[in-house]
Design brief:
The protein has helices at 25-34, 42-54, 57-73, 90-93, 108-115, 144-152, 167-180, 205-213, 218-224, and strands at residues 2-3, 10-11, 75-76, 83-84, 98-105, 122-126, 158-161, 186-189, 216-217. It is an alpha/beta fold. The chain has 2 domains: 2-73, Orthogonal Bundle (Helicase, Ruva Protein, domain 3); 83-224, Dna Topoisomerase Vi A Subunit, Chain: A, domain 2. The chain starts with a strand and ends with a helix.
Length: 225
């Protein structure tokens, strides 16, 4: 309970503002590290850490070993920049995939979302983000140049833009379009079954699958903007 300087009555502090008095520095350190994860506050971090302490030692050991192996051994596909266990990911190495059809996405979550639809039979190119001047992300910070080189080498007959339909996504699409507009490549974008402003990873599989199947020429989206 604290006294407000402007009111005579007492104003209770919300419970999540209460200082956590840890009885162990090791516990405090673990909670601090866990709370760095997205969407994890101090109270949730404490609950997770205490849960791990209650688990058998071998289970916690497997978790820490798995995270350590992930951090040290994970690779990025040399061809598409997707996360992989090998230098070339399983999708790029699959002989049944159409290598001339390249789906341009922001990150690994979008690859997973599209793969879950079972509607796309081409390969991917993961940019690693979107152009966002407000966040200091420019074209040189993304894997755009390797994509342009693929087009110049004639490896792609069609580029399917599957970035989120946000201002940053549209800016990135347009930048790539200007880099390759003089080359013989078909440019398409997923149909707008995906609402404008929506992030791709949150789209349901049916809607996303239909957007892949009914993709439209990219130039037509420029006329509508």
């Amino acid at each position: 309970m604290v006294t407000s300087p402007n009111f005579k009555h007492f104003v209770p502090l919300p419970h999540y503002f209460i200082y956590m008095d840890f009885s162990s520095k090791l516990l405090e350190q673990a909670v601090e590290e866990m709370s760095q994860l997205p969407g994890i506050g101090k109270r949730t971090a404490l609950r997770l850490v205490l849960h791990l302490l209650r688990q058998p030692t071998d289970q916690t050991t497997r978790l820490t070993r798995s995270l350590d192996t992930l951090r040290n051994d994970i690779k990025f596909c040399k061809n598409c920049y997707n996360i992989s266990d090998t230098d070339i990911c399983e999708i790029c190495a699959n002989p049944s995939r159409d290598k001339s059809l390249i789906c341009v996405v922001e990150d690994i979550r979008d690859v997973m979302a599209i793969e879950n639809t079972s509607q796309f039979k081409g390969v991917y190119h993961v940019l690693g983000g979107k152009i966002s001047p407000m966040e200091g992300i420019g074209p040189s910070d993304l894997h755009i140049e390797p994509l342009v080189e693929k087009v110049k080498r004639g490896e792609a007959q069609e580029l399917l833009f599957a970035l989120s339909s946000t201002m940053e996504g549209d800016t990135t699409n347009f930048y790539i379009f200007k880099q390759i507009e003089d080359y013989d490549v078909t440019l398409t974008t997923i149909a707008r079954g995906i609402s404008v402003g929506d992030e791709l990873e949150y789209a349901d599989e049916v809607t996303l699958g239909r957007s892949i199947l009914h993709r439209v020429p990219f130039e037509s989206t420029l006329k509508n903007n």
